[in-house]
Amino acid sequence: MNLSLYFVTPDGAAGLEALVLAAVRGGATLVQLRDKHATDADLIPVARRLVAALAPSGVPLIVNDRVTVALASDAAGLHVGQGDLAVTEARRLIGPDRLLGLSVEALDQVERLPLGIVDYVGIGPVRATASKPDHAPPIGFDGLARLVAASPVPAVAIGGLGAGDAAAVKRAGASGLAVVSAIGAAPDPEAAAQALAAEWGAA
Ligand SMILES: Cc1ncc(COP(=O)(O)OP(=O)(O)O)c(N)n1
Ligand SMILES: Cc1nc(C(=O)O)sc1CCOP(=O)(O)O
Ligand SMILES: [Mg+2]
Question: Which SUPFAM superfamilies does the entry mention (predicted)?
């Protein structure tokens, strides 16, 4: 699992497969299918197509929130947050071999939750972001560094991140950055991903 450039798909994106493949050509190392409004029945065929499309690149597909979609599409993993099913239940349902990611927003969560059963944590939001209207209060890069230091598993930073942020994310100790709009809303998503990947490599 390479967390360095984690592309989280925009809600309800048109041309999703082309967008994801452009992100991967540009250097995205992990992709998350995130759609807060579609039904499971709508998302299962989408996830199946993405799993097949990503196979030649070896980039894993993680499904956000929905165990049923992850299992039905044979996705590489699942990402859950504090308002989703419990992380122990998520691990039980997906089994030991799929990747499991958990969002953490505060130190007490890092200290209290059984992080030994997850493969990575998503820490944020670093900054406020319109991509997640119900986000927790922003923690900034100092907050990110505190949570990364307390986490026993690799961490990816998320929330309001984009060009110019890779060095600060790396300094905070995270293993990468996760973005929605920096790639998904870019005029040229492949070029945007390429620039972020290059920035991470140089940081
Ligand atoms: C990599 C990553 N980190 C955090 C999140 C947020 O998950 P969650 O808090 O469950 O919020 P939603 O994405 O479900 O709205 C994430 N999706 N990915
Ligand atoms: C999906 C998600 N989770 C967050 C968290 O803080 O847990 S912030 C976020 C959205 C990130 O979108 P953008 O890159 O456009 O800011
Ligand atoms: Mg969630």
Answer: Thiamin phosphate synthase
